[in-house]
Amino acid sequence: MTPPAEMSGQHETARQQSRAAWGAVASGWYAQREELWKASREVSEWMVRKLDPKPGDTVLELAAGLADTGLMAARLVGESGRVIVTDFTPEMVAAARRRAEELGVQNAEFRVLDAERMDLETDSVDGVLCRWAYMLMIDPPAAFAETRRVLRPGGRLAFSVWAARERNPALSLVGGVLESQGHIPPPDPEAPSAFAMADPGRIRELVVGAGFAEPEIEEVTFRWPFADQDAYWRYVTETAASASPVLRALSPEVQNTVREQVHEAARPYQSGEGYDFPATCLNAVTY
After folding, report:
1. 72, β-bridge pairs
2. Where on the phi/psi map is residue 197: left (φ > 0), alpha (ψ -120 to 50), or beta?
3. Pairing of the two strands 125-131 and 108-112
4. Rounded CA gap, 275 and 228, in Å?
5. CB environment 115-146: b (16+ within 10 A), e (fewer)
């Protein structure tokens, strides 16, 4: 077994690497905000509907990215309520603040906050939202335990994670190519990744283990179109925090080879000049 001190050091290193990777793609997420939101908004609509925030509530969004989900909830809590938009990278928080200004949302506050170690009072929020992030966290049990701590009794948590990699080719194709070419090792099933919580049993184990009730879990599917091959490659290189640093480190020649192989792997999803990918999330709500 790895000694606790060494494990703690490994966790901290991994956390710093993740923070740097997500900070580096914040501008890409902001640049592609409209396309990303248009494709995936039903995932957030499910979450907000199940959270059912009321006027005057305080809602916390964790690992918010551009915060479209939390900003949707902000309209429901009204002037007497507030949404606390958080992310562990300052760059994402700044991007979310710009997004809120664009959408005219004024009852949101913005904080740099690590979901695994929250600087928030116990029992201080009425609801928590978290879209596509728990599975990426270095210590998910700690994140769920912290979520339970800050949530008032009876308050709800609504979150979304990705289903299995084969059901999400837009996310998984590039990793498969990089792995097949020896640029990255095979995925460690124990490590954080987009698909680390693709098993509903794992979701239940983490949620109930943190003191929540048995979660309601539902598949939410959507179509993820890209206008052309360039648009998909921009998505891969500018927003994928796991693949982007690897791709940027390759020589232009090798990067071109990877690009050709990714487009070859995406051929089954071709639609006109671009692609139309299926996507599946596992959405959960609990209290």
Report:
1. none
2. alpha
3. unpaired
4. 7
5. bbebebeeeebbbbbbbbbbbbbbbbebbbbb
Taking alpha carbons only, the member of 83, 49, 86, 43 closest to residue 64 is 86
Please work out, in degrees rounded to the nearest 5, the angle formed at the alpha carbon of residue 56 by the alpha carbons of 107 and 116. Answer: 70
| CA angle, residues 70, 72, 75, in degrees to nearest 5 | 110
Dihedral pair phi/psi, residue 32, rounded to 5°? -105, 20
pLDDT of the chain along its 287 residues, tens only? 555 667 778 889 999 999 999 999 999 999 999 999 999 999 999 999 999 999 999 999 999 999 999 999 999 999 999 999 999 999 999 999 999 999 999 999 999 999 999 999 999 999 999 999 999 999 999 999 999 999 999 999 999 999 999 999 999 999 999 999 999 999 898 899 999 999 999 999 999 999 999 999 999 999 999 999 999 999 999 999 999 999 999 999 999 999 999 999 999 999 999 999 999 999 999 99
d(CA 18, CA 30): 18
Global pTM exceeds 0.90: yes
Cα-Cα-Cα-Cα dihedral sign, residues 100, 193, 244, 18: positive
DSSP 8-state class, residue 139: -
> Can you give the C-alpha Rg of the chain in angstroms?
19
- Taking 3-state DSSP, the helix, strand and coil percentages for the chain, each rounded to the nearest 5, stand at 50, 20, 30
Question: In 3-state terms, what secondary structure has residue 174?
Answer: helix
Q: 173 phi and psi, to 5 degrees?
A: -60, -45
Nearest Cα residue to 134 out of 31, 218, 62: 62
169-172 contact pairs (CB < 8 A, 24+): 169/265, 169/266, 169/269, 169/277, 169/278, 170/224, 170/226, 170/232, 170/235, 170/269, 170/275, 170/277, 170/279, 171/240, 171/279
